[in-house]
Amino acid sequence: MTSSLTARSWLARLARAERKSLGLAVVAGLVVGLMTILQMATLAWLVSALVIDAVRPASLLPGFALLAVAMVLRALAQWWQENAGIQASLRVRAEARRVLLDHLQSLGPVGLTGHHTASLANRVVDQVEALDGYVARFLPQMRLAVLVPLVILGVVLTLDWLAALFMLLAAPLIPLFMALVGMGAERLNREQFETVSRLSRHFIDRVRGITTLQLFGVGRQATEEVHAAADAYRVRSMRTLRIAFLSSAVLEFFAAVAIAVVAMYVGFGLLGYISFGPADQLTLFSGLLVLLLAPEFFQPLRSLSQHYHDRAAALGAAEGMVELLNEGSPRQGHVPSVPRGKGLVELDAACVRHGERGQVLGPLDLTLEAGEVLGISGPSGVGKSTLLQLLAGFVEPSAGEHRAVPGLRLAWMDQRPLLVHGSLADNLRLAAPQSSDAALRDALQRVGLGDLLTALPAGLETPLGERGVGLSGGQAQRLALARIFLSEAPVVLLDEPTASLDADSEARVLAAFSALIEQGRTLVIASHRAAPLALASRRLTLQEQGGHGDE
Amino acid sequence: MNETGVITTLRPWLRHLARRRGRLAIGALLMLLALMAALGLLALSGWFITATGLTGLALAAGAAVTLDVYVPGGGIRAFALTRTLARYGERLYNHDTVLRLLADLRGHLFSVLAALDLASLSRRRASDWLNRLTADIDSLDSLFLRLLAPALVALVAILALSGFVALWAPLAGGSVALVLGVAWVWLTFGQARWGMAASRRRVTELERLRGRVIEHLTGMAELETFGALAEQRQRLDAIEARLREDQRQLGRIAALGLSLGGLMVGLAWLLAFWVGATLWEAERLSGPVLVMIPLAIMALNEAVMALPMAFTQFGATLAAAERLNALEAARVAPGDLATRRLPTAGPLSLQLDRVSLRYPGALKAALADVSLTLAVGERVALCGPSGSGKSSLAALVARQLRPDSGALYLGGCAVEHLDEEALRRRLAVLTQDTELFDDSLAANLWLGDPQASEAALWQRLDDVELGDWARELPHGLATRVGEGGRRLSGGQARRVALARLMLRDPGLVLLDEPFNGLDAPLARRLAARLDQWLEGRSVIVFSHHHEPEAQPLPGVNRRVTLPDQG
């Protein structure tokens, strides 16, 4: 991922991969335009034949049939255009999501700290959705807004060069309109977006504190305030809208005036009131066709202006994504070398540095032997968690070396164990997908959740998480431990595993740790509490400025 | 879902719209005016050209015919101008209406939320839920502009135009009404019905995807070490694939509606033109009118094309309405008996009589048969580990939750019979989490006492030792504290919450870990000042510390321990 990725270049890159579908959409859109011209020409010809040449309608049936065929073809082409756009948009969104998730995975747990998870999820889910209109409609329409008017101009030129001149005079105005519309829409969108998000923030802020408002008995005042804030924003945004809507009004005005001017010119020309230029060669056929094509000349541009907010929305969304993609990962995918001694993991003068915080750990030498229990203590902020992250491979040493037995499997637990949306069994099988139900029961028994399991009517199939059974903090922690029992990973890394538990829950969790130790696993426990550290067979006390002491 | 179900779901929201019916009617009329002007412009221009063409030929043939060019010319200019102005006016006016509706809906929904009990609220306070809530309001807010108004305007235009055409050619008028009537029904009801399942599902799938992504990110450390990332990612991809399938289907449905709409309008003018041509042959229709009719119908394209996209997504609007309706149904109406007043000054007693509470879905009761008596003016420390139900107890006293069994008496009166205003004025609760609002320091303090003078605010800030800090701020009391008080440190926010509490004059005070996040010497100093303020009030202090000396609690006479329920 290049570091200079911008919102525009990211969107362009995504669109480039779909240029085939998008090209198809443009071709189909062009066919729609051509079929429209064919319809108009046929209509004008039929009118002329009926009215001027007094041909009987029955003998004009082929003409009417041609009209019907053009209509059906136009509908088919439109369907084709829409579908090609949707295809491109779906694939672009899938690709954007894939790249984002891959990048988030490469950032890893350490790279993700400092991000608000809900806002990351919002980028991966909702902001990616915001690319839809831009890819499916705006991009094809941008080409069509140039191509279709050009074709129409060509047709009109063969009919009446003066009428074509009207349009040609309007043609250089088209880029001007586009800029005008763009400026208007972009400003409109920015301001609207800003207004709406400020309003939403205000609303969310008040809802978040609603229990406090209830306690202070000011629910009604707050309601009025919410209404007043929304109304104040209305007054403010109407001021912007008044200007912003002008740009589309200008476009509307030109489209309307074009029809009016052409109608007058053709009308007076047919009456013979215009004695200059090609007006005396006008016929009802050519005059009517020019009139019918005048609105079509402006139509693609009007569609484009309708889709302009899609572009602004996509650019806004892309900015959020690009910001994320430009973030460097704390690891470059380097594989730890083989330990020199008989330890499972070795650190050799290893240092870790985090961008703005400078060196947060090291230089540190450490050998982790099989079967030992290493307790890590030290004041907060001294790098206990960083050391565990280094051992886990979530971050790479900025200097020194990290060596580990090839293929060494690890297990991790911190204060906030993961509960996935699914059954109790799903949650346990995260660590060992092949485990039998008996093994799951056994693991729950070991961590003291056997009673809970028997209390649950649905047993292992009890749904957990949202709308499911709510587990207490201690229970969730022990569930995570049960996963570790199932995983059979020889090294278990525990980051402040009991920090959020009260004394009783802590005791139960510690009993489970002891069971793990009895199985001969290697534990690394980082904690500021005395009780978990008491299990350690060896202690490492980290001190400020990277010093450390073995005990 | 059947038709009546849809109407029942939308009824409360339609009623909201109905309050602005004058504005809605004007907005819809402006839309209609813009459409009619566009229609008139094209139709009259076609008529004019044909009329001049015929007159021109007659003149060339030497006939003495005249054509009034000024009336149609003026008409064309008027239509062109009207179309532009009406379109501009319509957009402006309708956006104003939509923003007014937004204010109405936000206000209404907030009042609904303010009446929810704590259990329903706490389940719903995650920020992604709030984002969805605002999105739901937005989608109902545009119910009028996206769905109702365009559909209504299109229908009126179709009927009016059919009637107009029927003046000259009844058969043509009838066929236009038939073809476009069928098209209208299809593009509104048909599209809505066809897209219903997928568009409703799409919202839930998006929700599910968001949930999975959050799991994926928060649990990455565990997933990565267990080597379960790839498997979890597959589940995520499966949800995404389903979502994509729904979107593809919705896109196809909308595209078909769009193509069909265009085709039907085309068919309508083709039919009318054919009928017109036969009438012209029979000399029952003039040439200019023959041209005018198809051109007018052609202009309807604009009105019809807006329908399929919006109506295909109708299910999403309906789902939004359902979610908000469910919220409304969870509202706790205050009982009719809640009229009892409390003495306006002096300390209040509190009595809990065998109170039990169990949250829906919880394995164990949060409180089981808890009894407690607090005499007038007494100070009690309530201890217990986290999860023993201290916060639930506070919420019960504050009537933010109802007990499953047992009763609570405040000042000798059952809590559920207390007048809302009296309860709020005489009971003060300092919650464990500090909640400040994205407003000025003063506005946050005024929550405690809206009538307090600035001097009183400064006094309380001095009490919590924030006075000097606040005086140094460039904007003083007008300083904004940021979202949730985030511009303040945790300790400062706690002290602002204490100052806000001390602006009140309650008879019973519930303090949940009052000095949470403050260092010990500061906590001791604040405790002394809090002690003064607590004089003449009954107090319960919640603490999860077992050791009495761990937290300096102001003058507590008694200690009660809640058993662990976890």
From TrEMBL, chain B:
Transmembrane portions of the chain: 24-49, 143-165, 171-192, 253-277, 289-311
Database matches in NCBIfam families: CydC (TIGR02868)
Bilayer topology term: Multi-pass membrane protein
Domain ABC transporter: residue ranges: 350-563
GO CC annotation: plasma membrane
Annotated keywords: ATP-binding, Membrane, Nucleotide-binding, Transmembrane, Transmembrane helix
Entry superkingdom: Bacteria
Positions of the ABC transmembrane type-1 domain: 25-316
Compartments in which it is found: Cell membrane
GO MF term set: ABC-type oligopeptide transporter activity; ATP binding; ATP hydrolysis activity
Pfam families, A to Z: ABC_membrane (PF00664), ABC_tran (PF00005)
One record GO biological process: cell redox homeostasis
Lineage, broadest ranks: Bacteria, Pseudomonadati, Pseudomonadota, Gammaproteobacteria, Oceanospirillales
The protein, known as: Thiol reductant ABC exporter subunit CydC
Coiled coil: none
Main location group: membrane
Organism: Halomonas halmophila
Record's keyword annotation contains ATP-binding: yes
Signal peptide location: none
